[in-house]
Amino acid sequence: MTSREPLLSVEDLTLKVRVGGAEWAALEHLSFDVGYGEARGLVGESGSGKSLTLRAILGLLPPNAVITSGRMQFDGDEFDLARQGKQERRRLERLRGAGISMIFQEPSVALNPVIPVGEQIVDAVMRRDGMRRAAARDYAIHLMELVGIHDAEQKVDAYPFELSGGLKQRVMIAAAVAGKPKLILCDEPTTALDVTVQQQILSLFTHLRDELDAGLLYVTHDLAVVAQLCDSVTVLYSGNVMEGSTDLRAVFERPQHPYTEARLRSTPDIDRIGRRLYSIPGSAPSLADRPVGCPFAPRCEHRQDDCEITRVPDTSSIDGREVHCLHPVGSATGQIELAEEARGPSSRCFSAPTWW
Ligand code: ATP
Ligand code: MG
Fold first, then answer.
1. What CATH code is carried by the domain that includes residue 140?
2. Domain that holds residue 285
3. What is the pTM of this model?
4. Has residue 63 got a pLDDT over 80?
């Protein structure tokens, strides 16, 4: 395969959940890539579909969820996510053991409380490499050191309850990288931690990325985390991609979707201390009352008559940036393609905060 192909491509993923005899679309026509060694942030507020997206990639969906369309390419292998017979499920299962690993928000979900933490890493190492137990234990200690556990020789025999939240999260990260995955899926792995530990874990991810050259798909509701850690971003709202780009800086400095712009305005920034923080009016629609057009339309300052009733086409805008909006920010004409003069910094819709 050529190096131009991404490590992971998800294309046209639509997922429905069955509730009380009815079916609701939780994800609609999602597409995004993660390159080798790339970190993509998948950002969206609560209920936007971030966890379901990760679960669809892993083939670990709740029993009442069904994928109605979606293709996935991972490291050269193709998967039809909507047609999961026994064989397809087994292929996805194999990926979970080897190429892809997942880090959850809450370490207690992933760690077995009655097995010493080192053992849990050793198991992952042995599954992957068929190493002998003694060598796997040494490797587990090495991994624990790699994730910043200083007294790894002692901690290797500790049970999860003996460790702080931050240390447990590090153990889970060590277990996740033990299988030398090509892709790591992270579901808000720092939300449950206090700010200092959160910062340490984010630095650890940056370090691991360089060390392992693994792709990272990092789910968060926090744009500041994306700015710190990621190369590219996909912004989700109510199960739909609003905006996506491999040029993270451009999205932060010149957002084109009104939702991205509103989220940036409502994110605290050190340069704007003392200024009142913008708050997006209203709340996200439930799966049952999402408009047929743009899901953000009812809350959007740039809304026009067609927004709630016209399905937004899968249109690419400036510099290959994906923007699902009929009237993008900065567009004087109200058309999807911006005029040439609107492409410079003058099209900024707010004073760009210092994310970098
Ligand atoms: P959070 O930030 O709160 O973790 P999220 O972006 O991860 O949110 P998801 O858990 O992916 O959101 O859920 C997306 C939507 O699908 C939500 O409206 C949620 O209520 C709904 N949903 C998720 N799982 C199910 C399920 N098994 N049955 C019915 N609805 C579900
Ligand atoms: Mg979630």
1. 3.40.50.300
2. 243-342
3. 0.88
4. yes
